[in-house]
């Protein structure tokens, strides 16, 4: 089969319509750049061509540079060169923006003489999310078109704007349903006249003071973000330097950032999140079941948050409780959450009313009868869950998906309590459910392929990042977290204090360390669970809880919150308590270097990740990274635990784990078989994923 040309050109009525067709998203691969250059040169040379329309096939205009080409040797023509050719044509070029014009895609449109966008089009420069800055003239052309301050905002936030907003700020000239027809008409109008290219002087930049003020605010909101800093610097060059020199400033930043390991990690994050959507072993053509209505059982914090996710996505949902009182409390909590968003200005009053209107509260499981998807979110108690699923098998309509939000329990056992285990799976949301992006979709032994496909699809509709996990205690995320928690406690007994442990993680890039997190969540929560299970794994946390130090809610926990209730200060009483427990256990405390603390926290997690991968609980190392990035605040510029492991070097991790295992006698710290194998072969988790994808 001959491959379709990625760029074609057709001349009709004096207009050359150059079309890009490079599915799925018309990324600017070398073949596309080459095709664009040839098409532009041919149109320039053809006397029958009076004007040019640049259009694209499919739903997207152009999604930007081909990210998979980064890190490989460059292939000419470069994107800046291609754009310069269009910009310098003496015939008008109009971009017909049918869908997303992102990154290099928007930069191509900026090199045209005018832009027409479809009402649904999105225009943006998301490069900062990849650790770079716009590198094909965007930092120089956009400010000169719409003003320096608004341009920097678009670059620094990385979020696309709508066609309507783009028209309002002068980025697009027209908004039209039929973009090609409108672009043709505009191109003809421009033919023969003076071409309205982006001005190369300072005419449109706006006041320098306004820009500096905006830049200072943006930099304050994004501390230590090299991409945002580079965007501000490149835009500033619009005031200080001629256009060509500004382009050189941009290029220098672009090359430096592109070659920085942080950008490589962010590119991994981009592809890992998308790969996580692919479910290995699903029969070809497996479709999702339609979900027009949902039900959530349990109106606690978690259930209410899950119901909000459905309402936010426009899906009607029934929130079910056992008593009217519990139901009202749950509904009030949901209403309160929305009211907070309205107060903060992130939600309009009428949107709140619309969302509340989609949530119907009911008492009794029978109310789940008309739902296509039922999410159970009651206490973590196997007996209770089995009872509910047993009843649901009768109540839920045939084909309805029966999901449990359990964090730890065996989904196979829950599924076995119904006569329809093929409909059962886990949908593990993370707290607060209406905010956190991660959704672990737990595939049980008997889960039907289309049920799994449905949960993944609905996850995306709820604006989550869904990742498939097999059944095991704690699934992917919490199973790994347990290793970190155990080490954190041990570090306290060996000589560290809570602030030392937390600092190791916050310096690494986590927003919070494990002890500050415990204080926020409440030390009593896990203490009660440990008591019920007769576990003695966390002597320090247990002693604090027994002393009534539950964390922020009692103003004392691992830290002292008496100052303002929220800011934790190191507490000498806690240090004394820890020292006492160390002494009782005959442990001689020693100063532990921060590097060792970090390795003790992260390497056992990576080791557990390798086990999870080896057992097939996760399909890819990238899936594990996606879980930690979206559910546990792992810093994205290190790529997630498994990508980070590759960057540290697997042999080093193996060696350190062996030392930790020998020093503690904990066989769990012995390197996992998969980790050993990859280290021995000189391979990596990334290479393993690539091999599996090939
Ligand atoms: N390069 C290479 N592949 C890309 C890509 C890109 N810029 N954008 C998307 N893809 C791939 C995805 O990896 C995915 O591949 P698989 O199906 O194999 O997983 C496929 O295209 C579809 O992508 P999505 O699943 O994301 O599709 P969507 O419909 O949900 O979203 C989109 C479409 C809004 C365009 C989204 O893909 C997106 O945001 N893309 C990235 C945009 C971006 O960051 N552009 C800047 C690139 S850097 C740049 O341009 C630098 C410069 O200045 C020159």
TrEMBL record:
<dbReference type="GO" id="GO:0003857">
    <property type="term" value="F:(3S)-3-hydroxyacyl-CoA dehydrogenase (NAD+) activity"/>
</dbReference>
<comment type="subunit">
    <text>Monomer.</text>
</comment>
<dbReference type="InterPro" id="IPR001753">
    <property type="entry name" value="Enoyl-CoA_hydra/iso"/>
</dbReference>
<feature type="domain" description="3-hydroxyacyl-CoA dehydrogenase C-terminal">
    <location>
        <begin position="597"/>
        <end position="682"/>
    </location>
</feature>
<dbReference type="InterPro" id="IPR036291">
    <property type="entry name" value="NAD(P)-bd_dom_sf"/>
</dbReference>
<dbReference type="InterPro" id="IPR029045">
    <property type="entry name" value="ClpP/crotonase-like_dom_sf"/>
</dbReference>
<keyword id="KW-0442">Lipid degradation</keyword>
<dbReference type="GO" id="GO:0006635">
    <property type="term" value="P:fatty acid beta-oxidation"/>
</dbReference>
<dbReference type="InterPro" id="IPR008927">
    <property type="entry name" value="6-PGluconate_DH-like_C_sf"/>
</dbReference>
<protein>
    <submittedName>
        <fullName>Enoyl-CoA hydratase/isomerase family protein</fullName>
    </submittedName>
</protein>
<dbReference type="GO" id="GO:0016853">
    <property type="term" value="F:isomerase activity"/>
</dbReference>
<dbReference type="Pfam" id="PF02737">
    <property type="entry name" value="3HCDH_N"/>
</dbReference>
<keyword id="KW-0511">Multifunctional enzyme</keyword>
<dbReference type="Pfam" id="PF00725">
    <property type="entry name" value="3HCDH"/>
</dbReference>
<dbReference type="InterPro" id="IPR006108">
    <property type="entry name" value="3HC_DH_C"/>
</dbReference>
<dbReference type="GO" id="GO:0004300">
    <property type="term" value="F:enoyl-CoA hydratase activity"/>
</dbReference>
<comment type="similarity">
    <text>In the N-terminal section; belongs to the enoyl-CoA hydratase/isomerase family.</text>
</comment>
<keyword id="KW-0560">Oxidoreductase</keyword>
<keyword id="KW-0443">Lipid metabolism</keyword>
<keyword id="KW-0413">Isomerase</keyword>
<keyword id="KW-0520">NAD</keyword>
<dbReference type="InterPro" id="IPR006176">
    <property type="entry name" value="3-OHacyl-CoA_DH_NAD-bd"/>
</dbReference>
<keyword id="KW-0576">Peroxisome</keyword>
<feature type="domain" description="3-hydroxyacyl-CoA dehydrogenase NAD binding">
    <location>
        <begin position="293"/>
        <end position="469"/>
    </location>
</feature>
<comment type="pathway">
    <text>Lipid metabolism; fatty acid beta-oxidation.</text>
</comment>
<dbReference type="InterPro" id="IPR018376">
    <property type="entry name" value="Enoyl-CoA_hyd/isom_CS"/>
</dbReference>
<keyword id="KW-0456">Lyase</keyword>
<comment type="similarity">
    <text>Belongs to the enoyl-CoA hydratase/isomerase family.</text>
</comment>
<feature type="domain" description="3-hydroxyacyl-CoA dehydrogenase C-terminal">
    <location>
        <begin position="474"/>
        <end position="561"/>
    </location>
</feature>
<keyword id="KW-0276">Fatty acid metabolism</keyword>
<dbReference type="Pfam" id="PF00378">
    <property type="entry name" value="ECH_1"/>
</dbReference>
<dbReference type="GO" id="GO:0070403">
    <property type="term" value="F:NAD+ binding"/>
</dbReference>
